[in-house]
Amino acid sequence: MRQLAGYTLADGEGGAQIVTLTGPLTVAGVGGLDTDLRAISGPLAKVDLTPATAIDTVGAWVAWRLARDTGAEIVCENEETRRLIDAVSRSHGDRSIAAPRPELVERVPEAVGDLVVEVGEGSVGVIGFFGAILVSCWHLVSAPSRFRGKALIRQLELVGVSALAIIGLMSFLVGIVIAQQGAVQLQQFGAEVYTVNLTGRLAMRELGVLMTAIMVAGRSGSAFAAQIGTMKLTEEVDAMRTIGVSPIEALIIPRVLASVIMMPLLGFYAAVLAIIGGAFISQLVLDIPFVTFLLRIQEVVPVRDLWVGLIKAPFFGFIIAMSGCYQGMMVKANAEEVGLRTTKAVVQAIFMVIVLDAFFAVFFTKVGWG
Amino acid sequence: MSETFLPDDPQHPIVVENLRNSFGDHVIHEGLSLTVNRGEILGVVGGSGTGKSVLMRSIIGLQVPDDGSITVLGRSITDAEGDEDIDIRARWGVLFQGGALFSTLTVGENVEVPLKEFYPEIAEQLRHEIAQFKVMLSGLPRDAVNKYPAELSGGMKKRAGLARALALDPELLFLDEPTAGLDPIGAAAFDKLTRALQETLGLTVFLITHDLDTLYEICDRVAVLADKKVIAVGTIPELLALDHPWIQEYFNGPRGRAARDAQHGARHGANQKVL
């Protein structure tokens, strides 16, 4: 059981009262006491600490504050108590603990302004970054021996090979969902056989690549931003520059190339697994044999659907790598920023991928590949 | 004084016996024993990688040792139950190397965190006042209290970390390389502050350092970590009398001599002033 501090009030000479503090005047004991003492308003003659059994800085503060506000004199016989009270009396302040916070009418316009400036600077920054990559590409073309093959292969493995399992499983499940849900709707018209068309064309044109892009943005885009951001913080990127190694050549080109190369391959792989998923569920639910489903796919899905998917994929890969690397390179201050930038990289990448996908959808329809 | 105020406390707030720590095959400590006396500043020195920080982490319960026993303020850390554990955490303060301030809170709010956690009955106003004077007690200017850690310099961060470590008026203070990364003037000021607080608040301080000036200026005793254990504990003259090569090289190297001369000079100067 914790001991608590207490107090007694007694009349002194001249109408002023004497407060005597008892018990342990420590951080553990004075919480309730202080609330009570603040209710005392009248002028006090003395604050007597002699009967207190223990004291720390918090207790000393409570006593000193009471004495200050009531104009009382502190009575104590103990040398250490005196020292603590001296220490806290020199350290009092009256500032608010919370950070200064401007009024709402100031805050909102300021936030809007910050956002506008940020978007403006961001656009310029991205264009500049894109330019730097193009320049570096040109340098590499004119001096191919500087190209970092090993770094590229490492990134190809990280972006592509190690993503096979998760992307495969995800696509397989998405294929199941599309075929099953499509079949439910199409059955109402007795047209469940068109489930094959639905699954096949959707997977090849849109879903395979789009779902892969989202997965790669979450897996690799975020990793790019976090890796490069951390390297910026630990000054590795600066060290590279001073040695004469271009961070764009060493860090960014391999990552961008790896994404551009891997996206079409992963997208195609995802589409195939989505179709297999559709075939699997069709056998169970619609009694369409697995092999028949696959044979029908060959008949109903035109080859240009495959091309639509494959043409889009490298663009998506480029966007994902660009936004990951760009956000990583933008890290300046602290570890918290790495997290913020990583989030931003993923959100930006997915958003841009979907915008671009909408653009491609209209484009391919216009050119007659609908 | 301390007897009446802290009746249940032993004379040795930290007792480590036969500690063994290892990471995989790499043994850090083997048969390490160390006793800290009440009211002293104990400096812990040792080469890089001798496990000074690991020792501190073991004592404060962040690192579970392979073997051995650690007793802090009369409670066993190595086989502590949940409740005791919490009770004892209110009685020590820890300053980590980088300050380890919570970056989303202001300095004042950082100091309030342990207060809120352990003593929710303390009213908001008193809590603010406590945070304010703790910040100033740690040698920070008055207006530092509502700044975010990112707005502070390295030395100010350490002082803010110290303010948080002192929030609950602990009996034991752990400092992990408090002067590392500070300029000599800032380091000397921090040493002085540590000594002043130790004397005012009656603290026992466990201080890891590489700073020879700190050792000479403020440490009552020094523990030397080498060969996976504490090879010697004592005042610096006592250590100098020992024949261990690392100790000799450490204290008699150019830096060690400079620190000793500086302290000798300071004392000499002080004496002259008195005369």
Written account of the structure:
The complex is a heterodimer of chains A (370) and B (275). Chain A has 370 residues and is an alpha/beta fold. Chain A has two domains: 6-89, 2-Layer Sandwich (Transcription Regulator spoIIAA); 145-366, no CATH class. In chain A, 71% of the residues lie in helices and 7% in strands. Chain A is built from twelve helices and five strands. In chain A, strand 2, helix 1 and strand 3 form a beta-alpha-beta unit. In chain A, helix 7 (195-233) runs antiparallel to helix 9 and helix 11 (303-330) packs antiparallel against helix 12. By secondary structure, chain B is an alpha/beta fold. Chain B has a domain at 106-169. Helix content of chain B is 43%, strand content 22%. Chain B is built from eleven helices and ten strands. Chain B has helices at 2-5, 52-59, 82-89, 107-118, 124-137, 154-165, 184-201, 212-218, 236-240, 245-252, 254-274; strands at residues 14-23, 26-36, 41-46, 67-72, 75-76, 92-95, 172-176, 204-208, 221-226, 229-234. In chain B, the strands form two sheets. A six-stranded mixed sheet of chain B has the order 6-7-8-3-9-10, with helices on both faces. A four-stranded antiparallel sheet of chain B has the order 2-1-4-5, with helices on one face. In chain B, helix 8 packs parallel to helix 11. In chain B, 44% of the residues are buried. The chains are: A alpha/beta (370), B alpha/beta (275). Chain A: It is found in: Cell inner membrane.
Number of helices of chain B: 11
Continuous helix count of chain A: 12
Question: SSE order of chain B, as H and E?
Answer: HEEEHEEHEHHHEHEHEEHHH
The helix fraction of chain A, in percent, is over 70%
InterPro entries (chain A): ABC_MlaE_roteobac, Permease_MalE
GO molecular function, one term (chain A): phospholipid transporter activity
Organism (chain A): Novosphingobium flavum
Function (chain A): Could be part of an ABC transporter complex.
